[in-house]
Amino acid sequence: MTPPTTTIAPRDLLDSMRGLYGEVVRDGQTIYARWTDHITRRAMCLGAINLANYLALRAHDLRALQPGLSHYGMSSLGRAEGRVLPNLEAVIAALEAITDVPAPERTPFPNTKRASRGARLLRANTDQVFGATPAYRTVRIMVTYPSEAASDYDFVRDLVARGMNVARINCAHDSAADWEAMIAFTQRAARETGHAVRIHMDLGGPKVRTADLLLDDKRAYVGDTLLLTRAVPRQRQDYPKQIRCTLPAVLDQVAVGEAVWIDDGLIGTVIVGMHADGAVLRVTHAEDEGVRLKEEKGLNFPDTDLHLSPLTDDDLSALDFIADHADSIGYSFVQDTADIDLLQGELAKRRDDWRRIALIAKIETRRAVRNLPDLIVRAGGVQPFGVMIARGDLAVEVGYLRMAEIQEEILWLCEAAHIPVIWATQVLESFVKRGTPSRGEMTDAAMGARAECVMLNKGPHVGEAVTILGDLLTRMQQHQVKKTPQLRALKQWQDVMGD
């Protein structure tokens, strides 16, 4: 749809805005009514109402209104996420003034308290999940601990001193004794430095990976045939390249024509046949020189609506420890509200005050994206809640061409619900691993300033990366908060070394 090039008359704009407002209120109430039985927290009640109104608003194509509103210097509705109805009312009130609607008949402008409520609720919810806002920076930094964090106190203390706000412990690795040591070091470092640090523990979830490779050639090329097996491969002439799938139940849910991606999307394949031993794959995407096949690499099935329990036996065992030690829980492979109910039920078995623990849903599948509003309300309705944009798996699931717009939409939906977001996966990856950042990843890290937390993965230079990221986020918050430019006086173009 091409925006109109002619100016829309103020009276026509007013009529359109009034009609839009009525539809948003009506449809928003319908959406919210589906959620009310699952909300006990007042903060989520307000967030859910605004989210319902936002979904109702964004069901409309607003591009025809944008130029007309901008022509008269009014809001273009482009920053309405956190305060949908007050934003619409302010626009309507301004249009009524322009069109000389009699004062007694005009829509009142929303007062400051009501207009700023969304931002206040987002800050409050963020503080509940990540702890009190630091004095030096509003966006938090989360760091994934390597195994050495259980034995090297100086390593942990350095991260805390540099500005790490959340310590992430991946429960797919190490042991309960290691986790306990990591937490003890973190708490000691927090006391010594005066920097508060939250403990985030991440459940591994059902990891579908490659194993037991049997190959005539260690590299995969476009046109190759692979057999993805249920059991350990056996030598056979018809399929010289075989890979075992660590979760064979997946192979009972796939179908011919569906895509399978290997190793974070480095190898793309399509299922061309089903075999008694598994699925026959044809390689459709790979580098010209081929891609080396390896064990323990992820398998993604973006075309398949997988039905797997997000809690494995290992996760249930880890929950015994997590329930007593974590400030927040990372929930992998969560896809629908039944998954939220499952984890909350397991938490309730382990402690009476489980609602105090924050739950962070990792959004990494198409189904999770589709169900995001319901996930937000079901989880956030009873406990502090946040969302992690798990951009590695999600990019493979939705496709790299769509990843940019999907991560934007997740940010918008969460802001509408006043829910904090973690910007995750490969942030400053080159710097963390090799000590030198790329231009692209610095820009990506700067984009992360629109979230409430940015996550760094482990690597030999992660300490320096915390410092670099902290400086970058501090600078960016002076220029932009969420989608709103702050319009600080420009001076960097005059002096690139200026403050």
What would you say about this model in short?
The chain has 499 residues and is α/β, with parallel strands linked by helices. The protein has helices spanning 10-33, 42-58, 65-71, 84-98, 112-115, 117-130, 153-162, 176-193, 313-325, 337-350, 366-370, 372-380, 391-398, 400-416, 429-434, 439-447, 462-476, and strands spanning 140-144, 166-170, 198-202, 210-214, 219-220, 225-229, 242-245, 259-262, 267-275, 278-285, 291-292, 299-300, 328-331, 358-363, 385-390, 421-424, 453-456, 480-481, 484-485.
List keywords for this structure.
single chain; seven-stranded mixed β-sheet; eight-stranded parallel β-barrel; 17 helices; M1 Pyruvate Kinase, Domain 3; alpha/beta; 499 residues; TIM Barrel; 41% helix
Report on the architecture of this protein.
- With 499 residues, this protein is an alpha/beta fold.
- It has helices at residues 10-33, 42-58, 65-71, 84-98, 112-115, 117-130, 153-162, 176-193, 313-325, 337-350, 366-370, 372-380, 391-398, 400-416, 429-434, 439-447, 462-476; strands spanning 140-144, 166-170, 198-202, 210-214, 219-220, 225-229, 242-245, 259-262, 267-275, 278-285, 291-292, 299-300, 328-331, 358-363, 385-390, 421-424, 453-456, 480-481, 484-485.
- It folds into three domains: 10-115, no CATH class; 122-204 and 309-485, Alpha-Beta Barrel (TIM Barrel), CATH 3.20.20.60; 210-300, PK beta-barrel domain-like (M1 Pyruvate Kinase, Domain 3, Beta Barrel), CATH 2.40.33.10.
- Helix content is 41%, strand content 17%.
- Strand 9 (267-275) and strand 10 form a beta hairpin.
- The longest helix is centred in the first third of the chain and has 24 residues, at 10-33.
- The two termini are 42 Å apart.
- The relative contact order is 0.11.
